């Protein structure tokens, strides 16, 4: 499978990159700073570019089967600004499947189901800037006709891969408070071969 990974220099993106190469996929990554990429592999193509540049995205999409986005917000509006460009580039390239890493904040609240978690009393975050950008990106993706899945972790500490975690569609697993970077990446990577959570947000936690 030919996979384009966006955000491959981040913690989750880098873990997904490693899983993809270990599974012998052909992987392309689009990064602003290629010098940050320390992996060398004959199945890896590193392209320098920016997700806010349509031309860079179009070049990266060429020949791909699926897109995995582990982009973060940069405490700005990177996600919501890049999502329309990503969707447009995917459509032009004939790609229909996208798996993204979101945040537990955009899941439905258990205590106030008419609100998202970051809007409700469940949220303990002092700032909602990142969650708001994730929310905007989710709305844009939801309105597309792509086969999308948004993996929504809570607190993301580093940690070993366990392969043992709980996932629930649209809400956070009850009592869930954390999930490691590697287990988040493991679940996201497994969605390449699964159609169970297409057009869904997925809450993941231990």
Overview features:
206 residues, alpha/beta, eight-stranded mixed β-sheet
Please characterize this protein's 3D structure.
By secondary structure, the chain is of the alpha/beta class. The chain has one domain (2-205): Rossmann fold. It has five helices and eight strands. The protein has helices spanning 11-22, 54-61, 78-93, 129-142, 181-190; strands spanning 2-6, 26-31, 44-48, 66-69, 97-101, 147-153, 166-169, 200-205. It has an eight-stranded mixed beta sheet, sandwiched between helices.
Brief write-up:
The chain has 206 residues and is of the alpha/beta class. The chain has helices at residues 11-22, 54-61, 78-93, 129-142, 181-190, and strands at residues 2-6, 26-31, 44-48, 66-69, 97-101, 147-153, 166-169, 200-205.
Number of domains: 1
Order of strands in the sheet with most strands: 3-2-1-4-5-6-8-7
Number of helices: 5
CATH class: Alpha Beta
Instruction: Please tally the β strands and state the result.
Output: 8
> Which residue ranges are poorly predicted, with pLDDT under 50 across at least 5 consecutive positions?
none
| Topology-level CATH name | Rossmann fold
Secondary-structure element series: EHEEHEHEHEEHE
SSE diagram, text form:
Layout: E1 2-6, H1 11-22, E2 26-31, E3 44-48, H2 54-61, E4 66-69, H3 78-93, E5 97-101, H4 129-142, E6 147-153, E7 166-169, H5 181-190, E8 200-205
Parallel strand pairs: 1-2, 1-4, 2-3, 4-5, 5-6, 6-8
Antiparallel strand pairs: 7-8
Helix pairs in contact: 1-5, 2-3, 3-4
């Amino acid at each position: 499978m030919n996979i384009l990974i966006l955000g491959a220099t981040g913690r989750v993106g880098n873990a997904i990159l490693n899983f993809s190469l270990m599974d012998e996929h052909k992987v392309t990554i689009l990064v602003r700073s290629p010098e940050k990429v320390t992996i060398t592999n004959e199945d890896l193509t590193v392209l320098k570019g920016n997700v806010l540049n349509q031309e860079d995205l179009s070049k990266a999409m060429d020949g791909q089967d699926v897109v995995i986005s582990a982009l973060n917000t940069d405490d700005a509006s990177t996600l919501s600004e890049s999502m329309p460009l990503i969707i447009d580039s995917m459509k032009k390239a004939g790609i229909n499947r996208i798996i993204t890493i979101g945040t537990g904040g955009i899941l439905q609240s258990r205590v106030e189901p008419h609100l998202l978690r970051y809007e409700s009393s469940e949220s303990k975050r002092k700032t909602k800037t990142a969650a708001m950008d994730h929310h905007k990106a989710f709305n844009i993706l939801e309105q597309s006709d792509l086969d999308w899945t948004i993996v929504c972790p809570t607190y993301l500490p580093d940690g070993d891969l366990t392969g043992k975690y709980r996932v629930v569609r649209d809400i956070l697993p009850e009592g869930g408070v954390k999930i490691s970077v590697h287990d988040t990446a493991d679940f996201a990577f497994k969605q390449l071969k699964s159609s169970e959570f297409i057009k869904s947000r997925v809450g993941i936690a231990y």
